[in-house]
Design goal:
single chain, alpha/beta, Elongation Factor Tu (Ef-tu), domain 3, Rossmann fold, 6-stranded parallel β-sheet, 6-stranded antiparallel β-sheet, 4 helices, globular
């Protein structure tokens, strides 16, 4: 099983980049969508992340949440924890410059995309899944990707602009607390995907991994990225 944990990410040897805040929107009381304009364009893959300087000698990892082909860089940030990263993002204004390292990470879609690939984002784990949906559509492989967003708090669900998804693929939001019986797990597992990309908090991902493996999905075909 491919597992990615970003608690000890490395920034040595990476280019330090300057990006400026283009827009800063509150999607819900806890979610912020920050759109950044790089001083110089740089390529990245959906599923990768930036290491952002949020205070002296302190960095936080934020997954790209937008279209890799766009001139702007989208970051989706949960500010509920209230730590250094949350305060930094809450304090941003249009035109502010931020320093970051990247892109980093290997939680990316393969080339070519498997005919049936499932991508699931739990809460703020929706960020890389949104980016993957854009990348698959841009590669004209959107029909092979089924994307799901799992929200454990109904009030946390963003909708409409500026948090949009391309089509295809279809993106199906699921409210986890309204489905205590785990029907959502069975629906995703029933697709019997050739590959699965799961992102979010550990407990929900563990339940989904178990359901996929029970449905016959090879554990080596499941990639996860745990958010804390």
């Amino acid at each position: 099983m491919a597992r990615v944990c970003r608690t000890g990410f490395v920034v040595s040897g990476l280019l330090r980049r300057t990006l400026r805040v283009a827009t800063h929107a509150a999607l819900t009381p806890r979610l912020r969508l920050v759109r950044l304009r790089p001083e110089t364009p740089f390529p990245y893959r959906a599923g990768q992340f930036l290491s952002v300087e949020v205070a002296p000698c302190k960095r936080r990892a934020y997954s790209f949440a937008g279209d890799p082909g766009s001139e702007l860089v989208d970051l989706l940030v949960d500010v509920a924890p209230g730590g250094d990263g949350s305060r930094f993002v809450e304090g941003l204004s249009t035109g502010d410059a931020i320093l970051a390292y990247g892109p980093q990470g290997g939680f990316v879609l393969p080339r070519p995309l498997a005919p049936v690939t499932v991508a699931v984002g739990v809460d703020v784990g929706a960020a890389p899944i949104r980016s993957m949906a854009h990348e698959a559509a841009r590669r004209a492989e959107g029909g092979g990707l089924r994307a799901f967003l799992v929200w454990q708090d109904l009030e946390a669900i963003p909708s409409g602009e500026p948090f949009d998804f391309p089509g295809p693929p279809s993106v199906e939001p699921i409210h986890l607390q309204a489905d205590p019986g785990g029907v959502w797990l069975a629906r995703i597992a029933a697709l019997c995907p050739a590959a699965a990309f799961l992102c979010g908090e550990r407990k929900a991902l563990a339940r989904l991994e178990e359901a996929l493996c029970a449905a016959g999905v090879d554990a080596d075909r499941i990639s996860t990225e745990v958010f804390y």
